[in-house]
Design a protein that fits this description.
This protein has a single domain, classed as PCu(A)C copper chaperone (Immunoglobulin-like), CATH 2.60.40. Helix content is about 15%, strand content about 45%. Strands 1, 2, 3, 4, 5, 6, 7, 8, 9, 10 and 11 form an eleven-stranded mixed β-sheet that branches. It binds copper (II) ion (CU). Copper (II) ion binds next to strand 9.
């Protein structure tokens, strides 16, 4: 009898998250449209968290995400995932992330993301956080991110250190 209840709770959680996500309106800054921003709840004492958002450049010139800041972390970086031998690792993009003209770049779990380093506290599901992105052309953009479940939008797990041992 436990399993149906467990399923119902999971469903309720995901429904709540979906509703919270819908409340975050697209943010338009110059030629950029930012949509679907979210982050994920952290386990106790987790040092880092990821920030995710879809960025569409409707203009005719490339823009570039050069930096991010947030009150939830002492340092915030722009990361990519890349293969290091057989292991997928994340690393900082020293030159930022180009948002090509006419294209959409998705910051999402397992892919490009904003990395909140040295969190000042845990991220709790159902709350919201803010972050400010800095673009070369579009300038500063403030976003509100709902905090989803720890596995929201998961395409894979994100481990910052001690990558899973490869066989
Ligand atoms: Cu990262």
């Amino acid at each position: 009898m436990k399993y149906p209840l467990f399923g119902a709770v999971l469903f309720a959680l995901s429904t709540t998250f979906a509703q919270a996500e819908q409340h975050m309106k697209d943010v338009v800054a110059g030629d950029l449209t930012l949509s679907g921003a979210f982050t994920r709840a952290t386990l106790p004492n987790a040092p880092v968290a990821g920030g995710f958002v879809e960025i569409t450049n409707t203009g005719t010139t490339d823009d570039r995400l050069i930096a991010a800041v947030s009150p939830i972390s002492l340092e915030t970086q722009i990361h990519e995932m890349a293969m290091d031998g057989d292991v997928m690792k994340m690393r900082e993009l020293p030159d930022g992330l180009v948002i090509p003209a006419g294209e959409t770049v998705s910051l999402k779990p397992g892919d490009y993301h904003v990395m909140f380093m040295n969190l000042t506290g845990p991220l709790l599901e159902g709350e919201t956080i803010t972050m400010r992105l800095f673009f070369e052309t579009a300038g500063e953009v403030d976003l509100t991110l709902p905090v989803g479940p720890t596995n929201a939008g998961a395409m894979g797990t994100m481990m910052h250190s001690a990558p899973a041992a490869s066989e």
